[in-house]
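User: Run a structure prediction on this.
Assistant: Running it now.
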Amino acid sequence: MSRNRIGDILEKHYRYLIVGGLFLILVIVLIVFLVSRGKDKNKDSDSESGDSSVISTSVDVPKDKYEINAYPNVNALMEQYYNALMNGDSATVESLCDVLSDSERYRIEEKAKYYQSSSDHMVYTKKGYQDNSYLVLVTFNILYQGTNTPAPSLDSAYVCTNPSGALYINKSELSEDEQAYLLELTVQNDVEELINKVKVDYNKALEDDPGLAEVIANIDTSVNEAVKNRLSEQQKLESEAAAEAEAQAQAEARAASSQKVKATDVVNIRASASTDSESLGKTTAGQEFTRYEAMENGWSRIEYNGGEAYIKSDYLKPVDGDAADDAASSGKIKIKSGVGNVNVRSSNSVDSNKIGTATEGSSYTLIERLDGWVKIDYNGTEAYISADLVE
C-alpha cells in the first residue's frame, strides 16, 4: 500500500479538518497513524491518488452504520480526553494514550491558551479492527478566545482496550491490515455524510463571522511557532545535559584510574607533553597532584588548577609508596665515612641555597626520605642532604 495513496485518500476526505484549524490537537489521529507512521515508504509519483480502490484488506470490514453515544465507557474516555485538551493538561492526555510525543504535548499546552469553551459533544463509533476497539468520530462546537461564533468541529480517534480491560487512545504504529480497515471505514457513506455535514456547518460559521477564519489562522501560526521554539529549547537542554553527562562520565573514569603522586624536585608544569610547550608554573618538592595518566612518552597528565597539565614522569613518585618510605625514614641518619664535609641545602635540589655543612660521621634526625634526598632537622631547621652521602 503506497504511503502517498493513503495520504491522498485522507486529504480528500479530511481536507477541511486540516485547513479549518479545528479543535483537533494532532491534526487528525488517523493521519498520524496511517500517513506519518505508514510502513510503506514508496513515493512513486506516477501512482494514482484519491481513489478508494487502493483500500485493500484481508479482513471483512462491516458496513454497519455508526452508533451514536452507544458506549458509556467510550463516551467517558472521550469526555476526559477533551476536558484535558481544553485545560492544556498534557499529563492526563498522556495517561489516556499509549504514546504522546513531546511535540504533541507542547501543542496541547500551547493551544489550550486560546480555548474558551466547547459544547454539544456527540460520539459516533464504528467497530474497529481489534476486539473491543472502535473508530471514534466526535462532533462538537469550539469557541476560541476573541471570537463570538463557535466553530463546528470533528475529531477522530482509534480507541482500543488493553489487557486489563481499560480503554485507551491508540496512536502506535498499525499493521497494514489495520490501516486498510480504518481507511475503508472512513469512506463509508455514513461517515462521509457526517463529515460533509460538519463541513457545511463550519463553512456557514465562517460566512456568519468573517473574522473567525483569521483568528483560527493566527492561533495556528502562534501555536506552531511556540511548539517549534519549545522543541528547539528542549533539544538545546538535552544536548547540554548529554554533554554534561559525558563530561561527568569522563571525570569519573579519570578518577577511577587516577593516582596520587608528588613532585620529587622543582620542575616545570607544562600545557602539553613537550618541553617546548608553555610553562604554567613550577612544582615544589613534595607537592602532591592527581595523575590521570602516565603516558608512554615519559610525561604524566595531571590535574592542575581545575584543568589538566603535564609534568615529566621522572619527577613524580606515587604517594601510595610513602608509607613504606616513612617506616624506613624514622630515626637518625649519619653522614657516611670518607665523604668529608657535605653540603646542607634549603631544598632537595643542587640548585638550592647552601645553608651549612655536615661533617662525616655526624648524625641528624631524619624527617623524610625523598627521591635522591633526605630531609633532616639541621639545628632546628628543615634542610636537605643528598641521599648518596648518608647511611
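Residues 3-236 form one domain.
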